[in-house]
């Protein structure tokens, strides 16, 4: 497969996302003004509670079987490693560059959570169809590739909607704390009524869809922050919960478990778990999957709903980009650091992880499976991060600016790393 052909394959899904995002930006601009902030918030809630769960359930229920789950056991570990390395490096970026404290979780999330489904749904089948690809000689390449990517999407969704979701929620909590700390100063300097200010900040979120601590509702931050607020940042893979050093270790563990359980009850995570169950139980799967399934209309309907996830979330990001280009607080150094983590450090780490797993006999004898594992280390940031930023109302504009630059770089980065990975697997 030539470099030009690979460039086209790797660039098309990224260009599609950028094109759809530009439509969202136009609709939100002054030229159209039809995609208002309230419309974006309402659409985002629908994506969160309906489209994303439908996509995850349909993908898993249709593509995964119990035998495949057993033979592909290393994939969840591989995704976990990508999140661990990315989150650790993101935490280091935060400590070095010291961004505003209410954007720390956003930066860590962009470093750790990759687009584990949508891009590979286009790239992997295209590689199977290309005659020059090392995988095209396999008759079952497209079938297996779709199954690998569907499992990657579902597993990635579980990590994203637990770990990354908790990071974004914590940004919201941090922002609320900063607002409360500034209440006396604002009351004195601007003669603002106390009751109105306290009403704005009294509740952050217990779930993303009830968010009311966003930057549109709360007062703007000043550039300077107290040193104590910098300590809000978490250890990289702590799922959720407020850190309190005075609590006994047992209480901390129980609090962490309790908060993790709450994250697992979010709609996308519940849908992924149900999809695993349906895919792993043949008699249940036969009821909704297949041309002769008596309840196949259920899966068809969910696939139809799931198809709205990517375009809607990308349009929302594009709409947020208009405001982000004007008032985003993201420095170029932060964008460069995220790009270096995602496109240099993670792919190099991925090569070491996959080669080590192959040497230990952990992987099935299928080079396409190894290619999917390697690609998981080289993807741009997950689009779902933008959904979460919109849900919690913190960092929407910053998330859109990061999205724009990371995906512009992705076309070249994916091309280079896909070439390197196929060369390694062909040896």
From TrEMBL:
What GO cellular component entries does it have? endoplasmic reticulum membrane
Instruction: Kindly list the places in or outside the cell where this protein is found, as annotated in its UniProt entry.
Output: Endoplasmic reticulum membrane
Q: Which UniProt keywords apply?
A: Auxin signaling pathway, Membrane, Transmembrane, Transmembrane helix, Transport
Domain of life, per UniProt, equals: Eukaryota
Q: What's a single GO BP term from this record? A: auxin-activated signaling pathway
Q: Which residues cross the membrane?
A: 6-26, 46-64, 70-94, 106-127, 147-168, 264-284, 304-322, 334-362, 368-389, 401-425
Stored InterPro entries: Mem_transp_PIN-like, PILS1/3/4/5/7
Provide the topology term for how it sits in the membrane.
Answer: Multi-pass membrane protein
Keyword Metal-binding in record: no
Question: PANTHER family, alphabetically?
Answer: PROTEIN PIN-LIKES 7, PTHR31651
Query: What is the role of the protein in this entry?
Result: Involved in cellular auxin homeostasis by regulating auxin metabolism. Regulates intracellular auxin accumulation at the endoplasmic reticulum and thus auxin availability for nuclear auxin signaling.
Q: Which family does it belong to?
A: Belongs to the auxin efflux carrier (TC 2.A.69.2) family.
Name this protein carries in UniProt: Protein PIN-LIKES 7-like
Q: What is the lineage of its organism?
A: Eukaryota, Viridiplantae, Streptophyta, Embryophyta, Tracheophyta
